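Entry type: protein chain
Record version: 2
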Amino acid sequence: MSDENQELAEVSSAGGFDVNKLDGAEKAAILLLSLSEEDAAQILKHLEPKQVQQVGMIMAGMEDFTQQKITAVHKLFIDEIQNFSTIGFQSEDFVRKALTAALGEDKASNLIDQIVMGGGAKGLDSLKWMDSKQVANIIRNEHPQIQTIVLSYLEPEQSAEIMTQFADKVRLDLMMRIANLEEVQPAALQELNEIMEKQFAGQAGAQAAKMGGLKAAADIMNYLESNVEGLLMDSIREHDEEMSQQIQDLMFVFENLADVDDRGIQAILREVQQDALMKAIKGADEALSEKIMSNMSKRAAEMLADDLEAMGPVRISEVEAAQKEILSVARRLSDAGEIMLGGGGGGDDFL
């Protein structure tokens, strides 16, 4: 771990509470609860729907809101924000250019309308703010082609949760449709927005949009639970072996973390809880385990090694769940442009 990271770790444990015990969402929740309702609302509107839901649930359920914990989070926030000479988020031009550079013009346009122009989430975008079960119920009786466009339009993690609400046969059909989808014409997208509008009011702009495809299918597969992912991949392989291989090649799995640079590994470790890290490493190969430990302080690596040695058998399902949790962190950091990821792709025994 670099001197800067070690210094940050020392600061974050000052005041008697180790802020590293909190994950990113918990830190965000404490910081937001420390603000006025108006200021918190201004920050929340810059987050993705999934992030708002996650942080909001933590805020609503937070009970052990101690002064030590508040102080530790505030101290960490101040130390991290001092690394920036200027914030710059007040500039509409800055937001527009930053979002377009990060997401591409097509994907950024809806966010720009909502954040910069103050427009609400309408039409298809309204689905992003709904519970996955609710979205599944809305589209359950629609034509598979409409279901395919909706799932391709939403974020992969939400689409994965929605797909778990359908039967295996339906999941297979939808995943293969998503993989074969390449582009949706403006008229079709506008028509679908109007269908959604009739169901819960509002409208969204019609624009030519590339959606679906093998990468979209791989992204959704990444977020499925391991047992669901395995069964679905086997079914796809039976119907189209070439497609299954192409999807698998585009998936990012835990072993691919070996290709992430040291700075990226350190960024991931700062967001991961110790229990999840221990279970994930339990099922990792020696090279990846060594890479992870080499990016920790000597003391932290020694403590982790001791904990692993004392750890009893762990179900493979628990290991896979922990690895998925860490991959979710890695993908979030990658989407934010903080790290670079590569790509590649895979009972209840014990390890």
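Comment: The chain has three domains: 3-81, 121-235, 254-335.
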